[in-house]
Structure formats: structure tokens, C-alpha cells
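BUG-404 | component: ligand-complex export | severity: low

The export step for pyridoxal-5'-phosphate jobs runs without errors, but we want the raw record kept on the ticket for reference. Input record follows.
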Amino acid sequence: MSDMAVTREMFDQVMVPNYAPAQVIPVRGKGARVWDQQGREFIDFAGGIAVNCLGHCHPALVSALKEQGEKLWHLSNVMTNEPALRLAKKLVDATFAEKVYFCNSGAEANEAALKLARRYAIDTHGPEKTQIIAFTQGFHGRTFFTVTVGGQAAYSDGFGPKPADIDHVPYNDLDALKAVISDRTCAVVMEPLQGEGGIISPEPAFVKAVRELCDQHNALLVFDEVQTGVGRTGALYAYMDLGVTPDILTSAKALGGGFPIGAMLTTSKIAAAFKVGTHGSTYGGNPLACAVAEAAFDTVNTDAVLHGVREREAWYREGLEAINAKYGCFKEVRGKGLLLGCVMSEQFQGRARDFLLAAMEEQLMVLIAGANVVRFAPSLVITKDEVAEGLARFERAVAKVVNG
Ligand SMILES: *Cc1c(COP(=O)(O)O)cnc(C)c1O
């Protein structure tokens, strides 16, 4: 089967049509570069949507994968395993958390967080305490529970009756939150920087006030750090820079550096509500995923890499501001660390996708976050040359869009 000719047309023939992938089919990657079937080279500023935190085929990850791949792949949770225990210990040592639950994706980590919050609230405070408050434009995954907690009804409509008792308020709007929170609130769920929603940072005072409101009403604060976690914003987790500690934190995307894994972190007191049999996953915490994630975690959780993220943020901001000074196409460049967004100016409203398509033509992979933001989520260890070359390509793409 390995010599079967593969073309983009096959996608439309054999795949469920829920995606509209680009025309190119990448076959190989190294660092922040990717090559397609024809050998065309691309610079990767997308990072597989904030996943490839160490670029493509980082030697530490390849070696962990090979080593574990020849030892033991999977057991199920009928048994525990060494890589899972080592990774859990490292996560606990590095964060507020005392307990870890492993799964395979961000949505699953959030599904676990939501179920745990509900079970804890019901066990501790009674059956009425089920309200979940989340934020407009928030994104938490695509299972039915997580997509309903997400703040875009368009993604959760059309599937029949939704999980109940979920309310949404605007991000950074304390009064709106005050109006709906009560002693019936089980949890407030938020991204400590909205990613998919458009690269929107929280006001530091807002996050602190959310924490206080949760405490007043015995509600849990859940931080979805699926996109912001594992070094993305320049801290190991974004909460560390905000001076606010959540009760439950979810991590995925960069956690495996490209290998699927998710994790939910919490305190011993809250974790106790997940008694034997209350929740689970066949693959969750399997040795192969955990071995790769351990290597990714060890590599990212160093001063050199975390500091390097701030340094790279400056390279990007400088380069993007210079492009904007010439073309005036962005209202602002926002975000933190290596999760950055260029917001379209009035003249280019709704046209972020045109910039993405023009960038592809210039052999540069970028992302969008809604119709008005071009998003960058590159490797945390992208080199200065790769950034410079990618920005040069981006400038050519911008020029093409601006000049029609
Ligand atoms: C990507 C993302 C998710 C969903 O993760 P999956 O691995 O696609 O299930 C959840 N929350 C946030 C903040 C994300 O960015």
C-alpha cells in the first residue's frame, strides 16, 4: 500500500467533508520547515495549531518516540506505567496541581474537567450546584459538552438537545459575570488568553476578580490552557504570569509536541470526587504518548526555552510592526509570547483568510483566528533565520493582498 499514489483529490473522495484542507500535502518536516509532495519548502508559523512546540521532528522527541516504541506502547489503565508516572510527577512538581488525569486531546481534558467540576460540586454542595459559566467566543473542544461550553452557538447548534445549565458572558466583562454567578454556580471555565476566539488577552484585574467571585460562591475556576500551556506564552502555563491559580487546569496541544495527549490537573481535594470507575479512557496515559510528552516537557520547561519565547515574541512584533508601518493593514498586533495575532484594520475587515492564502502562495504557513485575525503559533525554538525568512515571505503576501 505504501506506493499508492496520493493526491489532494482523494480527500474529497474518501474523507468526511468536515474540513477544507489546503491543496498542498506536506510529507516531511524539520524544525520550522516543511516540504510538500513536490519538494516545495514552507516556513511553518502555524505549528500545527500551537501543537509543535519544538518544531518538526525535534531530536529529543524522535529519540523518546523510538526508544519507547521499542519497549512498550500500550497497556490500558488496568495497569499503570513508568512514563505516565514520571510525566505526572513532573507536572505536579512544576504547577499548583497535586493530581493528574491523562487523556488524548484537549476536548477530552476539558470533558474530564467539566465532569469533575460537576461531580465535585454535587457531592460537596448538593444536586442544585450545576451551573457552568463560560465566555463568549471561548473555545473548549468539539465533544458535545465542551462545544456547548464553548462560546459559539454555531458550533453546538444542530445536534439536538444540549447539555444543560451552561451560561455565557462576555470575556473581560466583570459586571456580566456578577449578574449570573451565584451559589448555584459549579464552575467558571475560561481560557487565560482566548485563542480561537481571536487572540484576546484577559485584563489582569478581571482574572483576579473572577477568582474572587468563584471563592465567594464556592465555584471552581477552570483554566483551559490547551492552547496557552507548555511555554506558549513564555511561562510554563499562562496562569503563572497572571497571579491567579485555578482549581482545575487542562493541557493538551503542545503537551505532546505533536503526539496526541491531554491532561487535566487539579488538587487532591477536588480529584477525590473522581472515585474508581467515575471516568476513564482506554488510551489515556499510554506509555508511548507519555514518553514523548515527558521529553517535550523536559525540553520546554527550561529557562532557556521559556526565556527564548519572549525573545522571539520581540522578533515577531518588530517584524510585524515594520510590515504594518508600510502597508497599514493591521489595527494592532496582540497576544503573548508566541501566540500572536494581527488584527485587520478597517479596510481589510473579514479578510484574514486572504492573507493566509497569499502566505501559502509565498510558501509560508500561518493561521487565522476568526475572520479578522491572522494568527501565529510557531515552534517555541524557531530560529532567528526562520523567523526572518518567514516574515519576509509574509511581507510579500501582505503586499499582494494590499495591492490587490
Ligand atoms: C484546541 C483547543 C481545544 C481542543 O483541543 P482538541 O485537542 O482539538 O480536542 C480546547 N481548548 C482550547 C483552548 C483549544 O485551543
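Assignee comment: Attached the raw record above. The mean pLDDT is 98.
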